[in-house]
Amino acid sequence: MSNSLHVELGLTDEEFQEIKNVLKRDPNDLELAMYAVMWSEHCSYKSSRVHLKRLPTTGPRVLVGPGENAGVIDAGDGMAVALRIESHNHPSAIEPTQGAATGAGGILRDIFTMGARPIALLDPLYVGPLDTPRHKWLLESIVRGISSYGNSVGVPTVGGEIHIEPCFGENPLVNVMCVGVMPVERLILAQASGVGNFAILLGSRTGRDGIGGVSVLASQEFNSQADSSAKLPNVQVGDPYEEKRLIEACLELLNQKLVVGIQDLGGAGLTCATSETAARAGLGMDVDINAVPLREPNMNSVEIMTSESQERMLAIVEPVALQDVLDVCRKFEIRATVVGTVTEPENGVGYLCIRNGLEGEILAKVPAKSLADEAPLYNRPLKRPSNLDEKLSTQNPNSLVGKFDLNADIKELLIDESWIYRQYDHQLFLNTVIPPGFDGTLLRLNEPGGLKTSKAVAISTDGNPTWCAIDPMQGTILTVVEGAMNVAVTGSEPVAIVNCLNLGSPEHPEVMWQLSEIVNGMSEACLALGTPVVGGNVSLYNANDGEDIDPTPVIGTLGIRDLVGYKSQVPKVQKSSNENVSDALPSTNVIVLVGGPNPFEESQEFLLGGSSWATKCRNLKGGYLPKIDLGEVKTLIKAIHLFIEKSNAVHDISSGGIGVGLAKLILNYLNTGIEVEGEMSAAALFCELPGRVVLSVDEKNEKSVFEIAGEVGLPIYRLGVARGNRFVVKTSKSIDCGNGIDLEIDELKKSYLGNLEKLVIQ
Amino acid sequence: MHLSGIVVFPGTNCEFDVAESIDKAGGISQLIWHDTTDLSKFDSIVIAGGFAHGDYLRPGAIAKFSPVMSSIERFANDGGTVVGICNGFQVLTEVGLLPGALQKNDSLTFICKNVEIVVSSNFSPLTKNIEIGTELLIPINHFSGNFTVDSETLKVLEDSGRVVFRYKSNPNGSTASIAGISNETGNVVGLMPHPERASDILLGSEDGLRLLKNLILI
């Protein structure tokens, strides 16, 4: 066997043999290249699929589950919601602006492919410490890429998050979630049904950008900066204006019912779109390679079939509708070219046939299904890291002794993300009821220029590499809970999630163990909370100088609520570095904690493993994650609207524990001090057990809030009162923290407002 | 009833929002594709925000050549009411219906946030019945909102009451904190803030609706 082309294309010897078995002959170079992209890790999920099938994917609201371009949920009132999450990690590590921009572009196409108009993007980012010029440049460029593409394409970017960890220095994670809406009857699947129908390529011309992106870039690790420069030609370049016109043209085609199927061209380009649409319909397709409009001269057939040029779609159209389709495309100045036809299967096998001219010479002929669905699946070896237990016990923050300055710690743990979301149009379409910067984003459920409802959707993206490095299963459970709670505190019922699993190399058994544990945790939490997984993405080979990144499952959670009777708890003027939060509370308010163990009781166990206080302030990466009662979380989610009704602010406890949670309550909502009554241990103050909320309650409602908790069976504790201008928490002596927290809120604001911007700009 | 035509270039994205808010203000509206030339049935024309023709080259530079623009110039010169919001303001300065230019924000970043603006003149279709000095909470959303004009023109604008809106706290480096201006005859107005985004208390402010209610009284 010549050790050449198939290895260069990223295929193993076994995979090469499998291709020969399928074809019953040697593949030619074009066929080999098509298999290489379709059987790449990125397209085929060949290492992860055996695990992903353990996830719960069904539920009464699920219209479309995993496997299509996006999951679709029935939101009621005739409205369906499409959602998906993806990664664009590797392109963003190499060319951060374009990498992040095309990440947004790609996922938008997945959403409008289903018939939905995209109404929201969210961008969770995981980057290296902002103490080197390169890391600052990466973050600034990633944000610029999302901002320039998202704003221009006319889809608001309404949320996301940022985590700063050393393992993401050279391999930042750029995930992007998109949500779209449509009248249920517009839902369309990407199928090439109807023999004799035309396959029409819409949008940009095909160039040499992104050739082999999925196989070379996203399915191998790269080790150094020099390595990433060498891969530069594999990064696609985005054109948001082309995409905007493509969105409008495709929605018009769908509204006029002019297409029978539509599919975007993303990873693996034309090969993927043609083979997947044909395979889904159980049919074949003839593609005329000469018909494909090209951006550059002298492109060969391999380049044309594997190019990942952006802003392209494949529409399946009945011959009778062709002229109408061309007319719509002309209005929106979108290129539309017939490049193929849907064909009968031969002996039950639908072939993807690449020709030189529609009736011309056959350049490649392979079963469409073998490309799209029949990549070899690997059950790769799993192994729990052998040094994990030692690390967990030697670096256990619950055994801390020493003297610590909690005022400094609180300031360090608060990050003002407004520098990021201020650069994003987060208001377009007049849906943004709760803007970014709070817990979950709340959007009116309206189709711009179309169907209106009285409902709203809540969306949140959450990931915590620190938790998952310690215990990927428990870390994932806590992450799913955090997402559900972010949505729940807007008064919404969490109804579904999508997930993006960012991991290291699947060739390392420890990484495959992480993947398996993550899936187990996600299954357990989603079953308990009743949130099926309707879509996902797996990004492997995230590594840096040979070190795998910390495992980072990112959960995108969708919730639904009615807006009738909604009362906003969001201050009118958003905070910024030169404005004060307005609307200080008019009367005395009581601060209450709902859920979890009693933070004032010394005998309670508050595990600090994975907490940002332990990892960021004390540099301890071990210990054990808090245990969680998923039944109690479910009860809290079900009852939360009762608490919201009686409160003037509700905030869920997550990263930073009660300490940071109370500080955010002050900064985001109250604009008064909080005095905690009684002593709390540092462990109770910073334990990152999600599934709890802090409420600010007018004192006249205190009794009824406690009654509600009693009726539904939830633990509830009075923490203190909101008043004055200081944030005060006294600590007990289990870990010596001096006087605990005692900060003037002006000092807190001064250190918080604009602090991320200062880190990046300076 | 007042009929507004809302201009849609390829790349415009605020057209549905403007339409919804004008309807809410009590008018009716119709979207106009950029190749339209007959504007005779409209009581006013609104050029909505977004990225006309991708805003490649510079904002509004290509939109200037869309067929609808020469009709809008005629419509305005005949005394018709024309409002340019954000990208629409940029287009109006590009075709010369309003003076000055909108440069990149001095921060060199895109800015999306709620800002307070002050009504500085009644000499515009948006502020006819609003007391001078009224403060309004209205979002901005732009990369190029830094209104720039030479000192002589600035003096003319100031002296003739054509500075319609000013930022309370200048977010983008605009000359004299100017957020919006009108033309010599007071029938053409351009502003960077988005009144349509402040037309529902659920979204934080209804102050923009006050401006649109003035528009439909014409």
Short structural description:
Chain A has 762 residues and is of the alpha+beta class.
Beta-strand proportion of chain A:
15-25%
Strand adjacency order, main sheet of chain B:
2-1-3-4-11-10-9-6-7
Subunit arrangement of the protein: heterodimer
Query: Biggest chain pair contact, residues each?
Result: A-B, 39 and 38 residues
**What's the number of helices of chain B?**
5
Radius of gyration of chain A: 26 Å
| Helix proportion of chain A | 25-40%
How many runs of DSSP E, i.e. beta strands of chain B? Answer: 11
CATH-scheme architecture of chain B = 3-Layer(aba) Sandwich
CATH architecture of the largest domain in chain A: 2-Layer Sandwich
Task: Give the rounded overall mean pLDDT of chain B.
Answer: 97
Number of strands of chain A: 28
Percent helix of chain B: 10-25%
Order of helices and strands of chain B: EHEEHEHEEEEHEEEH
Structural class of chain B: alpha/beta
Q: Mean of residue pLDDT of chain A? A: 92
Give start-end ranges of low-pLDDT stretches of chain B: none
